[in-house]
Design a protein that fits this description.
This protein has six helices and three strands, in the order H-H-H-E-H-H-E-E-H. It is mainly α and about 150 residues long. The longest helix has 22 residues.
């Protein structure tokens, strides 16, 4: 899992300068009706890091893992990311993802095929969850940096 962890660290490192260059005006500008502003997208990635960190750790401690999904719209609204300073959100996102990378790297190879069920979704492996986490992160970073 070192390769995936290194990939995550690389994603964080390469995005930091670009994220740091965005102004409060950039990250609070409306993107269209019903769409999150860039602060909220980064907030969603913070929530994703927090949720997935737990999944990655818990899944390696059991024969299988079943955990809740999360209501992303409600989480973003409840945490009022629009009111947080952008620099704090960027710092939190980076630190959390470095922690997630460490957790990924710590998963023994024998646990990669652990069956994981999130909410009412079909079961997947822990390895699949980690791969999907990186895909999800890249997708939303592209939305923020476009």
């Amino acid at each position: 899992m070192k390769e995936r962890a290194d990939n995550l660290r690389s994603q964080v490192d390469s995005a930091l300068a670009s994220l740091g260059a965005l102004t409060e005006a950039d990250v609070t500008a409306p993107r269209g009706p019903g769409k999150w502003v860039k602060k909220e997208i980064l907030g969603h990635l913070i929530d994703s890091a927090a949720n997935n960190h737990q999944r990655f750790v818990r899944a390696q401690l059991a024969e299988s893992y079943a955990g809740p999904g999360y209501e992303q719209e409600a989480w973003v609204a409840a945490q009022r990311y629009r009111q947080r300073p952008w620099t704090e959100l960027v710092e939190l996102w980076a630190v959390l993802n470095r922690h997630v990378a460490h957790a990924m790297e710590s998963v023994p190879a024998a646990k990669l095929q652990t069956r994981c069920t999130i909410g009412d979704a079909e079961p997947v492996t822990l390895e699949w969850l980690m791969r999907d986490y990186l895909r999800h992160l890249r997708h939303h970073l592209a939305q923020i940096l476009s």
